[in-house]
Amino acid sequence: MAVATCNLAVVLLVVLMATALSTETSMAGPSLVNGFYSSSCPQAEATVRNVTEAIIRKDPTMGAAFMRLFFHDCFVRGCDASILLDPSSSNPSVEKKAIALRGYDAVNTIKSAVEAVCPGTVSCADILAFAARDSAVVSGTFPTFAMPSGRRRDGVVSRFFDVFQGIPSPVMQLKDLVSNFAAKGLNADDLVTLSGAHSFGQAHCSFFNGRLYPTVDPTMNATYAAALRTVCPPPGTDGGGDPVVSNNRVSSDPNALSSRFYDNVLAGKVLFVSDQQLLSSNDTADKVASNAGDPAAWMGRFAAALVKMGGIQVLTGTNGQVRKYCNAINS
Questions:
Q1: Catalytic residues
Q2: Where are the domains of the chain?
Q3: Do the Cβ atoms of 242 and 206 come closer than 8 Å?
Q4: Which of these, 304, 315, 299, lies nearest to 149 by C-alpha position?
Q5: Are the CB atoms for 126 and 149 separated by under 8 Å?
Q6: For the structural domain made of 2-167, what CATH number should be given?
Q7: Tell me: the pLDDT tens digits for 298-315?
Q8: Residue-level pLDDT at 24
Q9: 226: which residues sit within 8 A by CB, 6+ positions away?
Q10: Phi/psi of residue 188, nearest 5 degrees
Q11: Is 80 a known ligand-binding residue?
Q12: 189 has binding-site annotation
């Protein structure tokens, strides 16, 4: 009976995800299709999946790193892999200089594996999208789902200050978060759904210290705040540094992408102002409660929202280039 129940749950989850994705795939951008490389590079998605899985199995924190890179890439200049470009003599102030992210070397490793089977064919932007999808499957135990591709070109422009105009701040109020997402073609449902990615990953204390000092934010669970204060020193403390903590300090597995995030929001046990703000309106609070109460439905919504996000301002036609190395434009 237990096996039958488990199998039924998996079937229901697949159905929920398929229903959600059928709605969002058409919104991922008219240029994107499932299986774009089926003829030009049939091994592309399997190669990305195999390397991504191996990287995450070796270091479970990398699932969140891939997901965050994809989010940052799409929210700054669109999903064009501009976040991956290194500084150069002609452009010393690139996006990656604006904020500390992890996973750049790992993306280069995936790209090298893809280049070995299909030189000059698969864009870094598509590789990043596939790696984010595969991270959800590995770190979140999602059933595999289609990630439309055809981001035929990688961007050749990467600017430091564009990051501050595109990425939502962890101290944003709800109305500003909704406006930020709307500017990217995403709605409040997408905001709440994609915020679930804060169920894994890490953050520096400086991103939320304002909720701990000089006094504790009253919307934060007091016991949770007290524990954070033992790790995060007050701002300006000599020698205190800026420690890194897990986004999810409640779950037994801080590297799992899960709906546990929504339970944490309801309990006042999340790090960021932006996360706690999801309870500041009846509409988004209802969505938080719904996701907390139905993890399978949230998985379907998350997959669909990830696909939708992956369609932001993609480059097609002759715009940009398919980079040989993800961290540098072709010479």
A1: 72
A2: 2-167, 189-303
A3: yes
A4: 315
A5: yes
A6: 1.10.520.10
A7: 999 999 999 999 999 998
A8: 44
A9: none
A10: -65, -35
A11: yes
A12: no
